DNA sequence: ACTCGGGGTTACCGCAAGTAACATGCACGG
DNA sequence: CCGTGCATGTTACTTGCGGTAACCCCGAGT
């Protein structure tokens, strides 16, 4: 029958797509983001043109991969963020979740922050990449928006809350990201300490701290 | 004489190098970080091998370019950071300096955050890039360390100040970066407002804010 | 006169993205 | 039972880029 046939093909194509993504995942996690399409195709036991039939171009494949991992990470974060606990607890839990994730699978993390390049001049279609303009990983943007939404839903900071929430969302995510990236490279302290330090920063300890003796101008 | 001759050659080579960097700068600023070595060479009025004689490989050229701009930006930031004013003033001035810089020359900014890819497996020399492992821009690291040093010099937060200063340095820089990146893309508000919002965040308004009515668990 | 070294060029290699054209297997309608 | 789509797969190619080898030219020093 026509419908079942088309449905079968649909699911079959979907399964295939998923298999290909799994293979691509293995290769990217093993070889880093420079994995060639040939390598990925070989890992999947097929050849290049099939990948192109399924994903259009390399950017498409990488975007699909990124969406998978991003969704997974965002789900964990949302859980930590929405837990029924006090605010400081929730903040620390979220930080810890993120840091634990990047600590457990740094390869995934590194990949997510570099999905594609492509930043050609606007209006110039010579670059085959996809997201002209934005360069930093979409993961950061998505996390920022997510956090902004939670802040806006749960916090009351008077007028302009919405705007403030978005600024804070992206700012906090960036803080988490940069500190995590640095920490992952140098490992200067255990994770809990990093979490506590960052939470302290958000809790205003920077403003409260005293000037050091002999400081100029104060 | 030998010394003056060698000195002449030195300065001549340096001048050449600087000219090439200027040309590269123009191209990168015009075409984005994907500028090909051929394009850069053409802009400089010469051919590829000369670029390679001067900079080794593309990573070397890009690194040299990045150092130039990074140094310039860091100098402005250090000025704002070391100004003789109250802490909040200094923080706002620093944020504003950074945001003004990326607003004035977004192309430079975008380039600085993407100097090169290259993240091959450790110990594998197959990748010709340079900084294996680190992926995010060195600019962020340098700003983080810079800020950490200033914090450590001027702030007194009891024992563990040094560690805390580094965490905060990288964290604050990351906050600034991510918020700036998002703001640059969407322009949701004037710059001063962004500056104020971020400073407020650092000043603990997140912790002080009240819960919204009907929030779960609290 | 000659050679030596710095600045320059052409022509090439290897490799990866992306594509065109050809092969194969399998369900359908006659 | 035979062709006819059609999805799936392959080989073989083009294009463009990073990087290099070999050669060239010209001015300075002996």
Please, could you describe this protein's structure?
The structure is a homodimer of 218-residue chains. The first copy, chain A, has 218 residues and is mainly alpha-helical. The first copy, chain A, folds into two domains: 10-56, Arc Repressor Mutant, subunit A (Orthogonal Bundle); 67-206, Orthogonal Bundle (Tetracycline Repressor, domain 2). The first copy, chain A, is built from ten helices and two strands; from the N terminus they run H-H-H-H-H-H-H-E-H-H-H-E. Chain A has helices spanning 2-31, 37-44, 48-55, 58-82, 87-104, 106-112, 138-154, 161-186, 191-202, 205-208; strands spanning 155-156, 210-211. Mean pLDDT of chain A is 85; it is low at 1-5 and 117-135. The interface between A and B is large, with 74 and 74 residues. Strand 2 of chain A pairs antiparallel with strand 1 (155-156) of chain B, so a sheet runs across the interface. Chain A binds a DNA duplex (30 and 30 nucleotides) through residues 5, 9, 12-13, 16, 36-38, 46-50, 52-53, 57-58, 128.
The beta-strand count of chain A equals 2
What about the largest sheet of chain A? Answer: none
Low-confidence segments of chain A: 1-5, 117-135
Shape of chain A: elongated
Mean pLDDT of chain A: 85
Determine and state the CATH class of the largest domain in chain A: Mainly Alpha
CATH architecture of the largest domain in chain A, by name, is Orthogonal Bundle
CATH topology of the largest domain in chain A: Tetracycline Repressor, domain 2
What gyration radius of chain A follows from the Cα positions, in whole Å? 22 Å
Give the oligomeric state: homodimer
Cα distance spanning the termini of chain A:
83 Å
Specify which chain pair forms the largest interface: A-B, 74 and 74 residues
CATH superfamily of the largest domain in chain A: Tetracycline Repressor, domain 2
Helix content class of chain A: over 70%
Secondary structure class of chain A reads: mainly alpha
Topology of chain A as a string of helices (H) and strands (E): HHHHHHHEHHHE
Query: Which percent band covers the strand fraction of chain A?
Result: under 5%
Separate helix tally of chain A: 10
